[in-house]
Amino acid sequence: MPKNSKAVKRQLDDDVRESVKDLLSHEDTCDGSFKKSSLIVGGGSDAEDDAARPAWNSKLQYILAQVGYSVGLGNVWRFPYLCQKNGGGAYLVPYLILLIVIGIPLFFLELSVGQRIRRGSIGVWNYISPRLGGIGFASCVVCFFVALYYNVIIGWSLFYFSQSFQQPLPWHECPLVKNKTTMFVVPECEKSSATTYYWYREALNISDSISESGGLNWRMTICLLAAWSMVCLAMIKGIQSSGKVMYFSSLFPYVVLICFLVRALLLKGSVDGIRHMFTPKLEIMLEAKVWREAATQVFFALGLGFGGVIAFSSYNKRDNNCHFDAVLVSFINFFTSVLATLVVFAVLGFKANIMNAKCVALNTKKIVALLGNEVSHDLIPHHINFSATVSAEDYQQMTEILRGVTEKDYPRLGLDSCSIEEELNKVRAVQGTGLAFIAFTEAMTHFPASPFWSVMFFLMLVNLGMGSMFGTIEGIITPLVDTFKVRKEFLTVGVSLLAFFIGLLFVQRSGNYWVAMFDDYSATLPLLIVVILENVAVAWVYGTDKFFEDLKDMLGFTPFRFYYYMWKYVTPLLLILLLGSSVIQLGMTPPSYSAWLEDMASEKSLKYPPWGLAVCISLVVMAIMPVPVVFFLRYFNIIDENAGVVSTISYKKGCIIKESVRPEEDDDASLIHAKSPGSEAPSPMPGNSIYRKQSGGVPDAAPNGRYGIGYLMADMPDMPESDL
Description:
- It is a single chain.
- By secondary structure, the protein is mainly alpha-helical.
- Helix content is 60%, strand content 5%.
- It contains 27 helices and 9 strands.
- The strands form 4 sheets. A 3-stranded antiparallel sheet has the order 1-8-9, with helices on one face. Strands 2-3 form a two-stranded antiparallel ribbon. It has a two-stranded antiparallel ribbon with strand order 4-5.
- Residues 1-9, 16-50 and 643-724 have low confidence and may be disordered.
- This is Transporter.
- Na(+) binds at residues 68, 71, 75, 333, 464, 468.
- Keywords: Glycoprotein, Membrane, Metal-binding, Sodium, Symport, Transmembrane, Transmembrane helix, Transport.
- Residues 667-702 are annotated as: Disordered.
- The chain crosses the membrane at residues 62-80, 92-113, 134-161, 216-236, 245-266, 294-315, 327-348, 452-478, 490-509, 521-542, 562-588, 608-633.
């Protein structure tokens, strides 16, 4: 080593100290932690966001969050119903096709814009085009509407969960009422069933119509408060707190589903249910209705348009392979739906065999009573022993003989029709809460150790609902925090309290009818419009070619050309067709709801009163109203397209920095504008850059547009630029 090496080293160290001292002398007064992160060298914008914006602890945590958000209650109680209704196994074909054509491209689009821009839905669409900034606000409104009633369903699940620690289960049989002389079964329960009675009368204590509020159901009010408390506590620190909860809430449902499947397959009749489920009815595939319902299910299964996908993705690093994530999460969602369908119909197959055995036993008693009178002993096969239990096969053989010999007199015997297929076909009319809280709970009463399985099932529903709620609330909180720079903790508590008090509407005795109204009208049409506008904004306003260049810069490779044609032509066209068919269906079907009538102990379809129709229309209008409002405000320059008033104020680690308004730019469609007229400043999101803090005066341009964090770009003429 040269003798003067130590002297050279000391001189270099002194130079470095002087350079750092000079740089720090230009810093504004702020807290120490802010100063430490004020100089960012290399990958400036990325490094800034990494320092200021929360990030996922691991890729697994992020994937579990997206899976937990997309896999929800609809996978358990909506997909099996649609599969059974629309051709069994044949339904999987249109579903898979539409998942590839609509689902994955749109899911990839939302993941990529969120990850690249690192903002919530409001910030993302403001960046792409200020005139389309209302898309983000519309997503927030829809998220809030959905959160209002979705957490009520979690509250119902919490109630059933709390009631499952009993042997026998409280919905095992109809309650008895005692008067002065005798005891008798409650008429409402006797006319329906034990699980149906428990759901409508004990749990909901439902009124006869939406016009009869009936006051608050105090038990459901407590459950709703518990549900919102759980959501608030899990979300109060953002992904730092909810991310840890995801490990349990996302994985536990799979453990329960697999346990249920294994247990159900060991029960008699489960194979009958699965065979019935997946027997393809190919002729149904040609009906347009099947494809429309498959497209709608794909659309909602992935949580498109809510903003939750964008919010979760915005906490990723910009070089994350979001294409892989989109494909992975989409197919996990699909296989979860198939797994849930297997479980549901394996259990319902077992239940159908139980119901069929009861029917056979009842009819056998009737036949024994008719022997020697209406029925001759010679017509009964000799191997059938009435003193023992008659099997379903022997009963089938016996009734076929009776029907063949006494065809005209057979109806007079008064025998009920006993068939496993008929029992399974009854499921066609059962979906949603009816499947979870009536059909499935009835099946579990016949399980050995039924309380254990009931606890597991409703705990699974709570976790499925919570995973979706985390994404829904994140779709509200993240855009508002990014835009208005409020404390996330205060906003989370405020949103939870507001939603709880509005949610009291859903825990009245008529609350179930309000849940149905919000489910039917608050999300479907608005979300379709939102996603169409998202697709058009990226593919046509910003430009598919430019977007592909940005993806190549972000991912390190060019995505398949398949996405180019999907985003630009196929997906928007299919979405417009889906929107048109949904509008036509709503127009052809007058708004109505299914009411439970206590006297008849049955459901009846009722039309909404005039004020109910007004509420239905208001839900749709309120959800989509931000889009035209923001567009016209920007178009007529009531709000300057290049100045966002509130959003021009940014903060980092407790230090608030006021930024200047970005100069007028020619290209409103740029995701993150590369250059301003008359300025050679590079893109605010380059691949590699150096940012330095402003030393004084008014900056020429905020490096991150409306949502910058207060740094100026150093003059580097050779800096590579990106369209993002």
